[in-house]
Each structure stands twice: as structure tokens, then as C-alpha cells.
Amino acid sequence: TAPVRPAASAGPPASAPASAPASAPASAPASAGRPGVPGLGDKYFPRAGNGGYDVGEYQVDLRYTPAEQRVTATVTITARATLDLSGFNLDFRGPEITELLVNGLPAPYERRGQELVVKPPRTLPRGGTFTTVVRYSGRPRPSRHATLGTYGWVPTKDGAVVAAEPDGAPTWLPVNDHPRDKATYIFRVTVPKHLQVLANGDPHPPVTRGATTTYVWTERDPMASYLAMIAIGRFSVRRGRVADIPVITAVDPQFASAGERLHTTTMEVLRWQIRTFGDYPFQTAGGIIDDPRLGYALETQERPVYLGFTPDERFIVHELAHQWFGNSVSLWRWQDIWLNEGFATYAEWLWSEHTGRETTAKIFERHYRQPPKSPIFNPPVGDPGVDGLFSSSIYVRGAMCLQALRAKVGDEKFFTILREWAAAHRHGTASVPEFVAFAERTSGMRLDRLFQTWLFEKGKPKR
Ligand code: ARG
Ligand code: ZN
């Protein structure tokens, strides 16, 4: 989907690199086109994403044999060229490629680190749609990182599960891996017939042929690649409904006793969040508890995954709040992770207040008593670096920033800001400078000092 550049200055436009790549001399005839840049220039993940095209849809046809942990996949990517493209890149760190076609013709390609460099047989005209088919086969492996942990494609005892934030989607999928280029997805996953598959979005009736069953799930709303999820294994599945929204939850047999509570809490929280944040942005909802002992959760679109533990209410509130803040309103750049984690954590505080426990003001005060060197204050949340993306300050100080905003503008304006922010950027992308401008417009107050202090000041912000 076409990335929309935010009004406030927050990075280069996706399709207009500041400098042409070395391989495209400025004198090249227009008809020859030029290659898209190999990254979108995100300060945190410079190689993530690729310029020169916008993906509209990923169609993911995948077979999995858990015994060998083997994937055989055909991914069809429908995209629109935003330049006359002589070549383009995808992000892919997955198994061996067996075939690659562009518009039905075999295309030469090269793998350089995570870049899959494709040379289409003909220049792809600007504005035109083209399809890329990538076939591959082998054993995908998760990414492992000192602070980000294990993520991406993760084999489980009875199958596999995907949790790819921030840059784990290329472990299993050839992809334009940046939340700026959201797209719709069709998953068609074939597994041995004793297993089940869940994914983002809407389920279609499974079809069994011989020894295998094929599950189809469709994500009809734009989705960032790190939120794409499939879960393969044995599950006990529950279905329900909140307003008009089908709710599907599933638990691995090891967590069978947590299934009912996951389901009822998910529905109850959703009802309350719709009242608090406005219309639910997607077609379905739910959640999955699966077995790898990763100890974290991910807000995978429409259906978060809780990995290796039974989530308490707060965890469920957090992941569901991300559906509004992070999934529907996505990051223009990773530096602005506060827009995801600060908001989802503040939702936990609101839930505490709503259920008659500690108020958000009390929670704030409790944290504010911590010493300046505490990890809840450091690093500052406005530019935490890749290693700080999920540090406790992003969550705690991030939520404190919203409490400071609420104290300054008052309850009525504060909740108007939350709801209208979600509505204004629904299914889009946004940046921190835009949020600051939006909060100032909506409240009619100057807030630059407040945000400067809470997002950027070193140590404990002074109030
Ligand atoms: N966004 C997730 C949350 O809800 C955290 C993801 C952590 N990712 C990771 N690779 N450790 O807080
Ligand atoms: Zn979160």
C-alpha cells in the first residue's frame, strides 16, 4: 500500500532517494529505468524496506513438515512501481530459493546478506503493477539478538510460530520489510492433517486431501510485515463475538487450562477498549498462547501471540491496545517506538483505573519516586536505539509521558486526542513529530516543552 508521507518532517520520502545508487548513472536513458534503493533509510534498520515500489498484497502458499522443520513455499507479491524500475530488492534471510519470476518470466537474482537483488527481464514502468513469484524450500531459522531475543520464524514442539518484531519477517518471507509499506495478505498453509493453522485475519474452511489439510486465512486490512503471523500445531480453539467482530482464540495443549480465561478476558477487554479508543480497526480479533518459552508477547495483527506463558489481564490489555496503536496507526520510523509501547502500556494503566484498582495518577507517582538512574527512565524514549527498542523505559517512562500529557490538557481533551489520533491515522503510518503537532492542535495548547522533557531529557524528567 502506498506509504503516505507524514506532514511533519520525519525522514526521506520512500520513493525518492536523496542520492541515486552508484549503479545507476545519472545519464542513463529514462527508458532504462534505475534500480530502487536497497533500504528505506530508517536510521535503526537502514537495510530494511526497499525503495521504488509499494507492495499491495502478499500471497503466501506454504507447506510445513514439522518432523524436518521444513518449509516449501511460493510467495506471490503484487506491487506497484513508483519509478521506472530496472531492478529492485526484497528483504529475505530465509532458505534456498528455487525459482524467481517477475511478471511470469524467470528473472536473474542475487542474494547479498538480507538483500534479495532482482533484475527483471524488462524495465517495470512507473505506476504499473507487477508480480514477483519467489519459490523456496528449506529450514527457516529465527533471528537471535542480544537484547531483542529470539524472533522471526520459531519452530515449536508440534509446529512453528512467527513473531517477527522488529525485523524478523525476512527470516521466513521475501518482503519489503518496513511498516511504512503495509499490505494485505493471503495465507494458504498446508500441514499434516493432525495439525492446525492459525494466522492473521479471517479463516476459511480447511480442506483435507489425503494426509494433509490446507488452511486459508486472509488479512484484508493493511498490515506491517512484522505483524504477519502463522501458528502451526495442535490447538484448542474458541470462537465468540464482540459487537460484530468474530473473536478466535487458541491455546497449545500445554496451556489448555488457560484457554477459557484468555477467551473471556479478550472479549471483555475488547468491549472496553472500543468504548475508550473508538471503533475497532480490524475485521476479527483474538489471541494465541503457544509453546516456545520466549516469555514475551507480540501484538500480531488481529490475533496477538503469547509465547510460553499464561498472560495476565494486563498483558492482554497491552496486546489488544496495540491493534489501535501500532497496528492500525503504524510507525513511520522505528525510532518512534514510543507511539506503540508507551500507548499500549498506558492502556494497562487505564484498565487498572477502570477496574477500581490503582489510578493512573497513582501509578505515575509510584514510578516517579524511582531514582534518576533507574532503567525505567533510561534510555530516554524519543531515540532509544535498536538495543533500547523494548527497554523498560520505553514502556514505563513512555506511559508516564502520556500521564503528563493528560494532567496538562485534562481528561476530556486527553481522551479526544487518543480517539481522534487513532481515527485520523487509521490503517496509516505516523511519527512522533506528527503526534506532538496533533496533540497541540486538538488541545489548543503548546506542548513542545512537555514532550521534549518526557521523550528526550536524560535521566529522570523534571516536572
Ligand atoms: N511489541 C511487543 C510488546 O507487546 C514486544 C516485542 C518484543 N520483540 C522482541 N524481539 N523481543 O511489547
Ligand atoms: Zn507492546
UniProtKB/TrEMBL annotation:
Catalytic function, reaction form: Release of an N-terminal amino acid, Xaa-|-Yaa- from a peptide, amide or arylamide. Xaa is preferably Ala, but may be most amino acids including Pro (slow action). When a terminal hydrophobic residue is followed by a prolyl residue, the two may be released as an intact Xaa-Pro dipeptide
InterPro entries: Aminopeptidase_N-like_N, Aminopeptidase_N-like_N_sf, Peptidase_M1, Peptidase_M1_aminopeptidases, Peptidase_M1_dom, Peptidase_M4/M1_CTD_sf
EC number: 3.4.11.2
Key words, A-Z: Hydrolase, Metal-binding, Metalloprotease, Protease, Zinc
Top EC category: hydrolase
Keyword Iron-sulfur attributed: no
The protein's required cofactors: Zn(2+)
Domain Peptidase M1 membrane alanine aminopeptidase: 315-454
Bias (Low complexity) ranges: 1-37
Aminopeptidase N-like N-terminal domain residues: 57-227
Sequence intervals crossing the membrane: none
Pfam family, one: Peptidase_M1_N
Region of interest: Disordered: 1-43
Family assignment from sequence similarity: Belongs to the peptidase M1 family.
Name listed for the protein in its UniProt record: Aminopeptidase N
Species for this entry: Actinomadura alba
Lineage: Bacteria, Bacillati, Actinomycetota, Actinomycetes, Streptosporangiales
